[in-house]
Structures are given as structure tokens and as C-alpha cells.
Amino acid sequence: MRVIYNERMADLAHLLGEMAGLAGSAMDRATQALLQADLPLAEQVISEGDRIAEMIADAEEKSFALLATQAPVAGDLRQVVSAIQIVNDVNRMGTLALHVAKVARRRHPNHALPEAVNGYFAEMGRIAVSMGQGAKEVLESRDPERAAQLNQDDEAMDDLHRHLFTLLMDREWKYGVAPAVDVTLLGRYYERFADHAVEIGRRVIFLVTGELPPDADAES
Amino acid sequence: MRVIYNERMADLAHLLGEMAGLAGSAMDRATQALLQADLPLAEQVISEGDRIAEMIADAEEKSFALLATQAPVAGDLRQVVSAIQIVNDVNRMGTLALHVAKVARRRHPNHALPEAVNGYFAEMGRIAVSMGQGAKEVLESRDPERAAQLNQDDEAMDDLHRHLFTLLMDREWKYGVAPAVDVTLLGRYYERFADHAVEIGRRVIFLVTGELPPDADAES
């Protein structure tokens, strides 16, 4: 029983990690589509959303089957409960990448972003990819130090997000309201993407140490 | 065993319902604080966030204890798994109400909203309260028809949200960029609040019918 449980839990953690990596890759391409007003790339990201949705359903069923057939207890049970919660986070990460791609599609053939903020979004995209990869590694290694690194990435993301808002609120902002609305929503998508990666790290830290660090979005 | 399970599950569903109702009430007062630039009311909502956080931790522990001590199977197991997922939704509803209150606090003594959009937010606040109450009733009654009504409220919310964006994107928008940024974020908070209430309805429909309706935010 225990051998089968360990195999299936490793399989589930691998699937969750794969999805976090895919969400990071989707955010990477969505960011490129946004920066280059690249419609085919945006469409590609959007059409891959169905594949992520299938993997989510698969992960939910695998978690449920683990509970139903292996009846795990104590620490093993906590792992499965965490997996059920983490499925939601990777699902949101994927959906947020799709939202970015949809903004790129909606504004095509125009660029959604004024050139002045391209650098911010290029950097937020880079951090998002790194966090998707980080969440993947944390899920597969369960290393609390790697999980803590996600917080550093998240702080960098929050810094960029704050700078972006300073820019928007400045009298010098000369691009008008419509791009400001897009920039506001897009900034929120990247920030929430990062929050979900941090949330995955929190859940893993909780599994390993028994302590749950504070919620990222609750502070903002 | 089964009698104890039923009692504890009813207790957990009641706790989740209570939290959904509290999130609705928090959104109600946050909306009043926003519309009237009422700082004490905003502070009250924010300080009650700790109470919701405690209830969240309590609900997570109760779900875990149900799995650990009652070892539910089949439909009973699905109920507990759904409860674990629903905890996340009520948690987000509470956090989003807090975000609205924090915008009211940040802009005080000014009003965050230009008067022209007050009517939209009054109505979005009204729908949010109704959806918090609806989610509460659905959790306690498990009535799929009541759950489906949440979708109608959500459509009304989406309509208001779309109108709001039309207003923002219009050349006639004369309030400048800073209020547009606040309106954009606030609109997103109400929309997501509604999505989470719908998500609770979806989970309940799934429990009762075995079919999971499509995800609300994935469509937008």
C-alpha cells in the first residue's frame, strides 16, 4: 500500500510541477506576444489553454483517487490535501497567462503597451517564468530553501508593480486612459501569477516544516 | 461513524456558509466605505480580516480532521474534497472585500471614485452581497437551482463590468488616469468576488449532479 502511495504521490507531484512549468512557459510566450503584438503567438497560448484544463481535471482526479484507494494518514494525508490546494494555484497561473495573451489578441494589430513600459513587462515576464520554474522545482524537490527563494522573486515582482503604478499615477503619463487600463490589469495578472507561485511554496514549506507562512495577496 | 461524519460535515458546511455570508457583508460595508469615503468603516472591514483568517484556518483544520478521523469514502469523500476547495474561494472573497476597503482607506479623505461611476459600484456591491448570501444558502441547502441563480447574478455583474470599461475607454472620460486605474482594479475585485461565488455554486452542482459546469474567469 505504502509503496503504491509513494509512487502515485510522486506521479501527482510531477504532474503538478509539469503544469507549473507549462504555466510559466505560457506566461513567457504571452509576454512575447504582448511586447511584439504577435497575434499567432497569442493564439497559440490561448489554444493551449484546453490542454492545461485537461491536466487540471487529471490532477484533481488523481488526488481524489489517491484519497479513495490509498486512504493515506497523517503526513501522507497532508500531502494529498496540499496537492488539492496546489491544483487550484497552478490552474490560476495558467488562466492568468491566458488573460495576458487575450489582451495582446484584443489590441492587435496595435501594441497594447506604450513603449515606455515595455521594459517593465519584459522584466515581469522574466520573473514569472522563473517563478513557474521555481514552483516546478519546489514541487519536485520539496526543498524549503528553494521555496523561500520564490519570495525573493515575488518581492522583485512587487517592486516592479509599484514602480509601474508610480508611472501610471504620474502627471507625465501621456498615453491616455485606455493604455493605462490595460497596463493596470496586466500588472495585476503578473502580480497574481507570482502570488500563486509563492502560495505553492508556502504549501510545500508547510508540508515540510508544519508552519504556514503568511498569505501574499492578503498583505497588499 | 456515519452519524458523526454527517454531523461534522454539516458543521463544516455551516462554517463555510457563515464565512461566505461574512465575506458578502464585508463587501457591502467596503462598498459603503468606498462610496462615502468613510474611513472608520473601511478600517472596521480591514480589522475584521483577522477574524476571517482565523475561520479559514479553522475550516482547513476541520476538513483535514474529517478526512483523518472519519475516513469518508465515495460521495462523502467528494464532499470533503469540495469543502477544501471551497475554503479557498471564501478566503478569496474575504480578501477581495478587504482590497476594496483598502482602496477607500488609501484615497481618504478624497473619494476614490468619480461621482459618475458611483451608481455602477453601488449596484456591483448590491450584487456582491446577494452572491455572498446566495453562496451561503447553496452551501447550507445544496440546492442546484439556487446554485444556478448565482450564474444570473454573475452575468449581471459581468454586464456592469463591461459597461464600466466602455465608460473608461470613452473619449468623454474626463477624470484622468489615476481614478481610471482605481476604477479598473476595483472593477476587477468585484468581478472576481462574483467568480468565486459562482465557483462555490459549481462545486455544489458537481457534488449533487456529478457534472462540473465551466470555469467563470477562464471565459473572460
UniProtKB/TrEMBL annotation, chains A, B:
Give the domain of life. Bacteria
The UniProt entry, under InterPro entries, shows: PhoU (IPR028366), PhoU-like_sf (IPR038078), PhoU_dom (IPR026022)
What GO terms describe the biological role, i.e. biological process, of this protein?
intracellular phosphate ion homeostasis; negative regulation of phosphate metabolic process; phosphate ion transport
- Could you give one GO CC term from the UniProt record? cytoplasm
Tell whether Cytoplasm is among the UniProt keywords. Answer: yes
Compartment(s)? Cytoplasm
Protein function: Plays a role in the regulation of phosphate uptake.
Question: What family is reported?
Answer: Belongs to the PhoU family.
How is the subunit organization of this protein annotated in UniProt? Homodimer.
What name is this protein filed under?
A: Phosphate-specific transport system accessory protein PhoU
